[in-house]
Design brief:
Number of domains of chain A: 1
Helix content of chain A: 25-40%
Number of strands of chain A: 10
CATH class of the largest domain in chain B: Mainly Alpha
Number of helices of chain B: 11
CATH topology of the largest domain in chain B: MetI-like fold
Shape of chain B: globular
Helix content of chain B: over 70%
Order of helices and strands of chain B: HHEEHHHHHHHHH
Strand order of the largest sheet of chain A: 6-7-8-3-9-10
CATH superfamily of chain A: P-loop containing nucleotide triphosphate hydrolases
Radius of gyration of chain B: 24 Å
Radius of gyration of chain A: 18 Å
Strand content of chain B: under 5%
Oligomer: heterodimer
Strand order of the largest sheet of chain B: 1-2
Structural class of chain A: alpha/beta
CATH superfamily of the largest domain in chain B: MetI-like
Largest sheet of chain B: 2 strands, antiparallel
Distance between the termini of chain B: 51 Å
Number of strands of chain B: 2
């Protein structure tokens, strides 16, 4: 089966100050799959993720070259509409980071910045998004409660619901479970498996078991370079590169 | 062998606790003095006349008047006017410094703004008399520019650094996650500021305004110099006024110590003290809440 390419890095380099973080990245990310980025701390996996929705733009002393294609268009052209791009490529962060407002307002935030006024429509989408994030049953009676009152795992699912509300094509997750306990992690993993039917998911994780459990493709990064990239089962059963083998066998990292 | 280190520690402890107890005693002493002297007024003047009478003329021959209402309203007008000027300017500057200005610009502007707080109020009063009030008289076609409007501007300038500085601190201290997650949802910078940062910082900004308000209520010298100091009940913003602080400063040098007039001035001081105390107390509570809200 021919798989559709959603995102493609072409000789992408990234510098922070004068330090090169990403070195000649070539990588194809496929539609409706979960792709896991693994590697030791500081290998550049979060930076790589943040190139895709141009969050790195916020760092004034950074520089990028090469191409990064999204739906076959380079998103680092001068006339790229970054605001529009970020509406199509959602992001969930390492630490659950709801806004200091009610559960409802958190999910409605993305709709309100798009000037959606129709209250019934907003209600409808908030409900659907919370359902997709497996949170609706837990919060449906207390939507006006402050989001900070939820547990860590619930907050993270709220953040997922918040990004789903504006119906992104791609969801980027930056170590979304690193602050959560195993049960909360399991919930998020089953949720991601469901979501990939409709969306492309890229997840950064330091947890190799997590990558193995949920991803279709895995990319191993080391010192800003792609060391190995293949189907997840293939990579974990039969790594081609010795560096990959050492890492997944836990010999370092 | 005696333990010298231990003795030294004890001495330092003693010194520090003596200093803080002394400071506390002085403050309590001031309050007690103010209270005892001020409260005596009400043995001769009824609180109704004092608080609700709108004529203040303690030296009138035969029938002195003790109503402080026009003075209180003078204070309220200046406070209100100064905040109307300082709040929008202050919040806008704080947002600019915290979210828009490049680090270098911020590091230059912030100390300059804090320096304004260090300008003696008598200097601002002088600027008010010599430059601002003639200008305002000319612009609005008034016979004198010494009025509530001019005082509001002068006090507004005095309050501005407090509002900017504290609001900026509150905005800067908001977790960066709020900014990132807002932008990641496709918000523009302005939407991020308006819909995420300002609501999150609201209570801190309110506290900054309250502190400014406390300063505006208590401000004396700058106001005294530009307010016009008429005892008549003000009707418009361009009327001369005599706020409570200015009234005390003007009359205290003419009264006989221990006279009823003397005591009544202390009673005004007591009212002022209560006003600023309440304002500061409320802002303390708000700041405390703000600090606790975002401890994760």
């Amino acid at each position: 089966m021919q798989e559709e390419i959603k995102i493609e890095f072409k000789d992408t380099n990234f510098w922070y100050n004068s330090k090169q973080i990403l070195v000649g990245i070539n990588l194809k990310i496929y539609s409706n799959k979960i792709t896991a980025l693994i590697g030791p701390s500081g290998c550049g996996k979060s930076t790589l993720l943040r190139c895709i929705n141009r969050m790195n733009d916020l760092i004034p002393i950074s520089k990028i070259d090469g191409k990064l294609l999204y739906n076959n268009e380079n998103i680092y052209e001068k006339d790229t509409d970054v605001i529009e791009l970020r509406k199509e490529i959602g992001m969930v962060f390492q630490k659950p980071n709801p806004f200091p407002m009610s559960i409802f307002d958190n999910v409605a935030y993305g709709l309100r910045i798009q000037n959606m006024k129709d209250k019934n429509k907003i209600k409808q989408i908030v409900k659907e998004s919370l359902e997709k994030a497996d949170l609706w049953d837990e919060v449906k009676d207390r939507l006006n409660l402050s989001a900070f009152r939820l547990s860590g795992g619930q907050q993270q699912r709220l953040c997922i619901a918040r990004s789903l509300a504006i119906n992104p094509e791609v969801v980027l997750l930056d170590e979304p479970c690193s602050a959560l306990d195993p049960l909360a992690t399991a919930k998020i993993e089953s949720l991601l498996r469901k979501l990939k039917n409709e969306r492309t998911i890229i997840i950064v994780t330091h947890n190799m078991h997590q990558a193995k459990r949920i991803s279709d493709y895995t990319c191993y990064l080391l010192n800003g370079k792609v060391i190995e990239y293949s189907g997840t089962a293939e990579m974990f059963d039969n790594p081609k590169n010795k560096l990959t083998k050492d890492y997944i066998n836990g010999e370092f990292g | 062998m005696p333990n010298y280190r231990n003795i030294k520690e004890k001495l330092i402890e003693l010194l520090l606790s003596t200093a803080s107890i002394t400071a506390l005693l002085i403050l309590i002493g001031i309050f007690v003095f103010l209270f005892i002297t001020g409260i005596r007024t009400f043995t001769e003047i009824s609180p109704t006349e004092f608080f609700l009478g709108n004529e203040w003329n303690p030296t009138a021959y035969g029938e002195p008047k003790w109503g402080i209402l026009s003075l209180v309203i003078g204070t309220i007008i200046v406070t209100f006017g100064s905040l109307v000027i300082a709040i929008p300017l202050g919040i806008a500057s704080a947002v600019y410094l915290s979210e828009i200005a490049k680090p270098k610009i911020r590091e230059t502007i912030k100390p300059v703004i804090e320096m304004i707080a260090g300008i003696p109020s008598v200097v601002l009063g002088l600027i008010g008399i010599l430059f601002l009030s003639p200008l305002i008289a000319k612009i609005f076609g008034l016979s004198s520019g010494l009025n509530a409007f001019t005082s509001s501007i002068i006090v507004g300038v005095m309050v501005l650094p407090t509002i900017i500085s504290i609001s900026e601190d509150v905005l800067t201290s908001l977790p960066n996650e709020f900014r990132e997650s807002s932008l990641a949802l496709g918000a523009t910078k302005w939407q991020m500021i308006r819909m995420t940062l300002l609501p999150a910082a609201l209570s801190g900004i309110v506290a900054a305004i309250m502190l400014g308000l406390g300063r505006a209520v208590g401000e004396t010298m700058g106001v005294l110099m530009v307010a016009g100091n008429s005892r008549a009940m003000p009707i418009s913003f361009f009327d001369p006024i005599r706020p409570m602080t200015a009234n005390i400063a003007i009359e205290i040098k003419e009264v006989v110590k221990g006279s009823l007039h003397y005591e009544a001035l202390f009673a005004i001081g007591l009212v002022l003290f209560v006003m600023t105390f309440v304002v500061n107390f409320i802002s303390d509570i708000i700041i405390e809440k703000q600090v606790r809200k975002y401890k994760w």
